[in-house]
Amino acid sequence: MTAFNRRLFTLGGTASVVAMAGSAAATPTGTFAVSYSDAEWQRRLTPDQYAVLRRGKTERAGSSPLDREKRSGTFHCAGCDLALFASATKYDSGTGWPSFWHPLEGAVGTRPETFLFFRQTEVHCSRCGGHLGHVFGDGPPPTGLRYCMNGVAMTFKSTGASS
């Protein structure tokens, strides 16, 4: 079975469970430059953004328009507006979530987590600690990484050109 077929098999078997249950961990603990009370995060974010960014949930595959975004620009954290990924590093992973092979320097943090007996690496915004998604080792060159992000956790700022 190829890596891509294994990924689709794994996604098919766990995607609905992950979407309903969310990640094993909520927002990372620690000190971040942007920090609000839970009530203030709820006020600032939409319910879907709050569920993903602050509670570690996962949006339904294929639900984000950012998965189909093709323009040149930058993807930002929906919680604090930190620039996270350049459009030049985005690619179609076939998973239904916006995927990138490299974040902008210093934009994200990672930590290991276990969910449904799977070990994975959670990705969060380095400025506000918001949960963005996960990183996997089955991406394209040059990094071989797939930063599989929740579109609802990000906004997009176009530079006006199509990529």
Written description of the protein model:
The chain has 163 residues and is of the alpha+beta class. It has a single domain, classed as Beta Complex (Metal Binding Protein, Guanine Nucleotide Exchange Factor, Chain A), CATH 2.170.150. It has 3 helices and 9 strands; from the N terminus they run αααβββββββββ. It has helices at 3-21, 38-44, 47-53; strands spanning 71-77, 83-86, 90-91, 99-100, 108-115, 118-125, 131-136, 146-149, 154-162. It has a 6-stranded antiparallel β-sheet, with no helix packed on it. Residues 1-24 have low confidence and may be disordered.
CATH class: Mainly Beta
CATH architecture: Beta Complex
Q: Based on CA inertia axes, which overall geometry fits?
A: globular
Largest sheet: 6 strands, antiparallel
In angstroms, what separates the terminal alpha carbons?
32 Å
In DSSP terms, counting alpha (H) and pi (I) runs of 4 or more, how many helices?
Answer: 3
Average of pLDDT: 86
Strand adjacency order, main sheet: 3-4-8-7-6-5
Corresponding CATH superfamily: Peptide methionine sulfoxide reductase
- The gyration radius over C-alpha positions equals 15 Å
Helical content class: 10-25%
Order of helices and strands: HHHEEEEEEEEE
Strand residue percentage: 25-35%
Helical/strand content category: alpha+beta
List the helices and strands and how they pair.
Layout (H helix, E strand, L loop, with lengths): L2 H19 L16 H7 L2 H7 L17 E7 L5 E4 L3 E2 L7 E2 L7 E8 L2 E8 L5 E6 L9 E4 L4 E9 L1
Antiparallel strand pairs: 1-2, 1-9, 3-4, 4-8, 5-6, 6-7, 7-8
